[in-house]
Structures are given as structure tokens and as C-alpha cells.
Design goal:
Elements: H1 21-43, H2 53-58, H3 65-82, H4 94-104, H5 107-120, E1 125-131, E2 137-143, E3 158-164, H6 171-174, H7 178-185, H8 191-201
Antiparallel strand pairs: 1-2, 1-3
Helix pairs in contact: 1-3, 4-5
The protein binds manganese (II) ion.
Manganese (II) ion binds at residues 27, 31, 77, 164, 166, 168-169.
Length: 202
Amino acid sequence: MAFELPKLPYAYDALEPHIDARTMEIHHTKHHNGYTTKLNGAIQGTDLEDQSIEEILSGLDMGNGAVRNNGGGYYNHCLFWEVMSPNGGGNPSGELGDAINDAFGSFEDFKDKFSAAAGSRFGSGWAWLCVHKGGKLEICSTPNQDNPLMPGIGCEGYPILGLDVWEHAYYLNYQNRRPDYVAAFFSVINWDKVAEGYASNK
Ligand code: MN
């Protein structure tokens, strides 16, 4: 089974002014498409061909660089597009809002801690909000296209929110100002989608 590049759930310009259309288009049609194509090439003719992407990542041989980088890149971007929306932003409510307050003290404290994880990732990588079985939340960060589902990554739980901090995600509009991009991300977070991920994986 070959993986397919998913369609975005909104237009390339839908997240402006927070994330510009040109960045979104290149990110989706070049970067995400590249990971998808290379993942398919890396698993072709192997046992991995019949597995879901979650199975591939959670059972990954971390020495398999092609699957680690491209499988992570495929999965991470699929989540990234889904957790953003032109109608996003604001604060999470309901059980996710309660879980954020329990884990981090307040939404503002969560925002500070998540932004710090995104800002302090040296070079390329991701910041994550993950849920553990039982509902506890954790913030972490991974390098490159690594993902919390991968074994021994030091980031436990199931990822329900991911922020791409590779320069390709923001450089055209924000140049080296990663903190401005991270702040803008909070204006487009689709909390309904994150809450769905929380409910399904707690
Ligand atoms: Mn990316």
C-alpha cells in the first residue's frame, strides 16, 4: 500500500497572515510530497508495505534512516496540516482545556512551555503536545523528522499537536524570527482537532 499526499483541509492562503500562501504551497507540494514519495520508495518490497504509518513508526528500526526520516516526515506533516485552521486560535475548552490546566497550571503557562520547546530546538525539528494513556499531557521536542511514536525517542505518549520548526516552515515570511512564527501558530491552532486527538488517545 503506497502512502498518498493528503489534500490540505483549507486553501494555501487560508492561514494568512499568520502563515503565507507561498510557504504553505511549497511546504505541501515540495517538502511533504518529497517525504511521501521517498517513504514509498523506502518501504517498497519490504514487510513495512502492509503496515499503517503508526505501526511503521512505533516499530521502527531507528537505524533505518530512509524510513525514519521520510516516514516521520510523512506522518508529522499529516498531523501538522490537520491541527491548523483558518478558524483556529483561542483557548481549548472542555476536557482538553481541563487537562492543560492540570498539567501546566494554566493555558498561558502551557503556551510559554510549548513556545520554549519550539524555540529552543536547535536546528530542525518539532515541538509536540502528547497525551499518555490515562489522559496526562506532556510537552516535548524532537530533532529532524523524529516523532514521539518512535521507540526510545525520549518523548512519550501519543502526539496530538505538532509544530514544525524547520526553517522551510517559516523562512520566506519570518526569516530568522522563529519566535514570531511560533507566536503566530497559536492564532491558527485547530483546538477542536487537538481535542479529538486527546479524546481518542487518552
Ligand atoms: Mn516541514
